[in-house]
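I'm curious: can you give me some protein's one-letter sequence along with its backbone structure tokens because I've never seen that pairing?
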Amino acid sequence: MATLFKNIKELIQVRNEPISFVSGKEMNRLPTIKDAYLIVENGLISDFGSMDNCPEIKADIIDATGKMMLPTWCDSHTHIVYAGNREGEFVDRINGLSYEDIAKRGGGILNSAKKLQETSEEALYEQSRMRLEEIMQLGTGAVEIKSGYGLTKDAELKMLRVIKRLKENYPLEIKATFLGAHAVPKAYENNKKGYLNMLIDEVIPKVAQENLADYIDIFCETGYFSVEDTELILEAGRAYGLVPKIHVNQFTAIGGVQAGVKFNALSVDHLEEMRDEDIKVLLNTGTMPVALPSCSYFLSIPYTPARKMIDAGLPLALATDYNPGSTPSGNMNFVISTACIKMKMTPEEAINAATINGAYAMGVEKEVGSITKGKYANLILTKPINSYGFMPYAFGANQIEKVFIKGKEMKYE
């Protein structure tokens, strides 16, 4: 049976004509309908409009008086398949060690890789399942999940199989990214080239053969992988149909953004350090810049210069970077608040960045990311609030009452 939401105080992110993403000044335009209705049939948005035109139909009726409705968040950058945690490193940083210092001592990504290699696939699935259910309750209705904490052939494939199993068992849109080039493992400590060759010759063909990933990614950063390494990996992945993405400009700007544009990367993510030439090369491309403000918050590093980028005409997406080392949170509501508070984005820009632009950044903009007929009914119903600006304003409280994925309310204990 159809579901009719009626008396919606404001229906947010209404797009009658499908769009891929919004850029520049358009990011500050958020189309809405006040006093609205929305109809869900067979898991899809079938109709919506002003209550003045609400049809009389046989349906389950949900009265949304005083409440707002918007599309679920699209989190295009996470690492939620991981083992254990790293709160010890959190304390180390409080005591003065930098992220780079911890990595040099065998912490960081290598620490997570060791734990993951020792964790069974079933245990890894159980830990990851709980995190996925948590972020769904917080309003996420589409998510990209990366490997990269395995750093061996078997462990990387184990991660990707867990992601595939999550995709099979949960109703939200899930995209998988192969990030074998996340760090150089100890076994290849003095042989980075050998590690990259192993990924290219042994792992990428297996990933493609078993259809375990949509995207390929690499950490292009000083002390990790160079621009030359990045182009090598992206080319290898592209040969097997894996669409490029890049972790880039987190601590230093070394030309990785230019490599992303050269390889038509779907997204370039982090971007805490942005030069004028990095902004310029992204203009009028299909590559989506993605900011991860809760990572900046947690590590006390600079925030992506959103104002400068948007004012220059760029689009921007927001994502969590949910991972055990630099962002142990998948709360997109906090990301949106932080973007407004610390990056000076307007609520309109932040909501666009977390919905339609986030959907584009993981290739699901035709399915989710806006209130559009024919898209999945992945919906957030808020508690009674004054305006959508109250969501980023009240940064410490959850303003979500219910989350619907494909029209069904999500309930997890």
Summary: The longest helix spans residues 192-209. Residues 83 and 119 are 7 Å apart (CA to CA). The chain has a mean pLDDT of 95.
